Amino acid sequence: MKTLRMREIVNIELGDTVLEIISVDDPNPKSGNPWEIGYRGIALEVDDMAMAVDYLKSKGITIAQEPVDLGNSFRGEIRDPDGLIIELRQWK
């Protein structure tokens, strides 16, 4: 198994939205490995993590990773219907 190396990260700001694109050296075709080429996930910034999680749960959405305090932010995850990551992030 080859080791993938991150080449660069590009952040594109569109108003209040930031799109992060990660490039790796010599990527493999899309597979189950979350760090290989292709769509890996998306992150959504929320103003209030507790409120966002309560709202999602009230709509029947399962929280795949309960929010954790990372010091400068809170981070949690839900999954789309295909199992891809949707990260929730609240910056402090």
From TrEMBL:
Coiled coil: none annotated. It is an enzyme of class 4 (lyase). SUPFAM superfamilies: Glyoxalase/Bleomycin resistance protein/Dihydroxybiphenyl dioxygenase. It comes from the Bacteria. InterPro entries: Glyas_Bleomycin-R_OHBP_Dase, Glyas_Fos-R_dOase_dom, VOC_core. Gene3D superfamilies: 2,3-Dihydroxybiphenyl 1,2-Dioxygenase, domain 1 (3.10.180.10). PROSITE patterns: VOC. Residues 1-91 form the VOC domain. Pfam families: Glyoxalase. Keywords: Lyase. The keyword Lyase applies. GO terms for molecular function: lactoylglutathione lyase activity. Its EC number is 4.4.1.5. The keyword Lyase applies. This is Lactoylglutathione lyase. The lineage of its organism: Bacteria, Pseudomonadati, Planctomycetota, Candidatus Brocadiia, Candidatus Brocadiales.
